[in-house]
Amino acid sequence: MTTRTQVAIIGAGPSGLLLGALLHRAGIDNVVIEQRSADYVLGRIRAGVLEQVAVDLLEEAGVATRLHAEGLPHDGVNLSFDGQRHRIDLHRLTGKRVMVYGQTEVTRDLMDHRAAVGRPTVYEADQVTVHGFDGSNPWVTYVEGGVARRLDADFIAGCDGFHGVCRASVPRNAIQEYEKVYPFGWLGLLADVPPVDHELIYGHTERGFMLASMRSSTRSRFYIQCPLTDKVEDWSDDAFYDEFQRRLPPDAAARLVRGPSLEKSIAPLRSFVAEPLRFGRLFLAGDAGHIVPPTGAKGLNLAASDVGLLSRALAEHYRGSPAGIDTYSQRALARIWKAERFSWWFTQLMHLFPDNGPFGAKMQRAELDYLVRSEAAQKAVAENYVGLPLE
Ligand SMILES: Cc1cc2nc3c(=O)[nH]c(=O)nc-3n(C[C@H](O)[C@H](O)[C@H](O)COP(=O)(O)OP(=O)(O)OC[C@H]3O[C@@H](n4cnc5c(N)ncnc54)[C@H](O)[C@@H]3O)c2cc1C
Asked: Whose CA is nearest to atom 13 of ligand 1?
């Protein structure tokens, strides 16, 4: 039960599937091994804002047709505090925009493309284990429908998320981990109701943070900051909408339409980076190597930029040059740390921190006030929000 491929990709999230599509474009054989079912992967409600770099990579992979037909290009983003709303004109300040298109839709497009081009994906793989990546012939073992299988490969790409097996298989003394855990979570609600505004609103209030986001012109994603001790069962839809409405600026609050939740969940907030991202013939990409708090919408975008760099590095390797794979970790981390900084800064700016104290709260207010009055400060935010170039 042994098969062979060039690149064994662990995980069928956005990073694994996009890597598979980009490698396919480059003529590189690959197999994706995923522990869950395709439906389970598609049922996970997560990110929804794509940077231009991510859109470009999806185009390069040949999976951007529906994205361009159904995605919502956004030229600006709004910050609200003290009941006032302030727009940051992303397009005027940077010449770029972001695209609202759900992670589930990106995943569906990538899955459909993979099926159409006939590249194999193993779903519901049990006991996935990576072997021999410190040598020249790595392999992966797993159990599929009760049958033990072995996949030999030139390389293994660990695209298996924060709790995956790849990073956990690296010897502890070969990896350094940096982490910050935030003292609150985001309670999110997804509903088929129109957005409260045509652009996103990030709000700082004395009751805590809120984000009014959307997946389409008929589907909204709303978030409120909540204590980590809260349980999702404690929040009825009505209780959520009441609290969310209190945190919205008045004009948007007046437009709020309530509807039954399609999904409701609490996500903890964490900043995390593992260094390096290469261990012999094993590479980490996406959430397997780093996590950002969702403020700033960088998680999915970083997953895309990592695999953009990794696919180019592997293509270079198969053309005969090791330069790409030798510098992948360093190049990816340079971009990751900048996105980590922005997500951390934006989280600090917008949330209520239990231990901030009156001085910390005044600093936060002064920074918000400065930001909405200074074009230079807004430009720095806009440049990071639309995404730094892939270098
Ligand atoms: C609740 C939540 C909300 C989020 N909201 C936002 C947001 O609003 N904006 C934003 O930008 N980002 C958000 N993110 C982050 C974003 O969704 C992730 O950054 C993105 O999914 C990363 O993609 P990935 O493919 O690297 O990892 P994942 O999407 O986690 O995919 C990893 C895949 O690997 C599989 N896997 C795990 N272990 C194994 C194994 N042992 N063997 C085989 N397969 C395995 C998993 O089942 C999964 O399918 C959110 C994340 C979460 C968890």
From this structure: 47
